[in-house]
Amino acid sequence: MKQFQAESKRLLDLMINSIYTHKEIFLRELISNASDAMDKLYYQSLQKNDTGLSRDDFAIQITLDHDNRRMILEDNGCGMTKEELEKNLGTIAKSGSLAFKEANQKQKDVDIIGQFGVGFYSAFMVAKRVTVESKAFGSDEAWRWQSCGVEGYTVDSCEKESRGTKIILDIKDNTDDDNYDTYLDQYTIKNLVKKYSDYIRYPIRMEMKKSRQKPKPENAPDDYKPEYEDYTEMETLNSMVPLWRKNKNEITQDEYNDFYKSKFGDYENPLKVIHSSTEGVATYNALLFIPAHASYDYYTKDFEKGLQLYSNGVLIMDRCADLLPDYFSFVRGLVDSQDLSLNISREMLQHDRQLQLIASRLEKKIKSELETMLKNDREKYEQFFKAFGLQLKYGVYSDYGQHKDLLQDLLLFYSSSEKKLVTLKEYTERMKEDQKFIYYAAGESVAKIDMLPQTEAVKDKGYEILYLTDNVDEFALRMMMKYDDKEFKSVSADDLGLETEEEKTAAKKKVEENKDMLNFMKDSLNGQVKEVILSTKLKSHPVCLSTNGALSMEMEKILNAIPNSNNDKVKAQRVLEVNANHPIFDKLRALYKLDTNKLKEYTQLLYTQALLIEGVPIENPVSFSNEICKLMVNG
Question: Model's pTM, two decimal places?
Fold first, then answer.
């Protein structure tokens, strides 16, 4: 018996016990190696102008021998000589596939999957003994390589009629932790081929045991019960031609839809299909789908983003998160590339330049397709935005606004004047000549925002207001700060830029005249507000609340609704604004001269009223109710 090198022993033991997360991928690796072997022979025949072979001559055969607990996988590829068996299988991480690819770098069509020479050894995860019988193309000799693991291996001559390689796996006995019988079940094997190797370019065949009803005898009695018989039938387990490698003009929309629903378990057709093939610095095929609705777990912590990743038709990762940014995490689909570097387990991707290039190009492609949908199919885009617009807004806000320029033209907000969703570009194109800001108002719903007192002055000027109803909206706009050099301005801000110089002068005069009363009202609220001022934004309402500083009332509500371990609460710097043109203002002035105690009561009532209008819960509703009753009785 020949011994593995000491380093190879340690590596083999490590791989069998820990590198691969799922034992089932052994079949993927062996099929990929078989595909490589047939590729090599096919390309060699082309180089020698040997027309005696075509791709139609190649196939992979899987046989399940239940009685002897064996799985046999056989190909009719190039096979191996004795030297190649020892070189490729006797030394771990010595890959014949990689050597072949390096020798044929100038030939673009050479696609070899197994480049690291370790996938073969994954067979030891399910097999107690692995036997390889191989006969090289054009040779009269066949050789048998056999090993039971780290103990070593033997190489002897054997009888084999045809070229190629046969791998015989003696499946392990069941343990308390692992049921190895599953790898002798025909439906398990069929499903694994479908899952991992469906798009291998050669047919993968296996005899399937099936059942059928026997023909009914001619003289069968009336109470005849149908009889069944078992039979076997050779079945091709893989489809061989990836949909994403076909030309777009060869694929119907129904084929895309059926593929999407079958592949990703959706009941509804996708809103958008993105099918692209790219060559050059990063060569890959991508087939992406934008769903028509969010999955039940999309906006939860349990959702996992990512695209399926293939290498030459072989599934490498079911969810490669690095191919999608978080703000496009709703995209489903797959990428197939021959350029990606894979690590020893073929399950973890090295985050190399190729992956980053593919991810960058996919990001641009997705954005471009969304912009096209927005421009050419507004109804469909609004359906998309209803499902996933929240994610785009989070994308604007996250990472300190790093992606705001990329995403800002994809956002939609409800317009006070248009009564529908509009883009920021549409808003700015409609702005009046004298309008300084992009105005917005935040609240629980469009209906409630529409009733806010703070919107009156802006509406009176004929200016459009964007209504923000999602929790993240105001945070996103604050992060953006501007759009098209126009600053965002909340209707609750202290300076809305609506007054003329004459109006500002008159307002200052009125404030000066009532400064003492306003300070008294502020003191009456015992620190509940930073100040009490005369409002320039109110028309028909007596009072409203605004804020000083970066934190608005709506942001305060949202942040305080988020659980935290210390139960700490944030508080905006509240400002009570009083309408100097409302009859209540004259009443307040009279009370300041005649009854300051009652002015205190009125001030508290007005502040509580402003809180209720703003949708902020009041601390003592019973007291507020009693004060209202008292006012009704006493006047």
Answer: 0.74
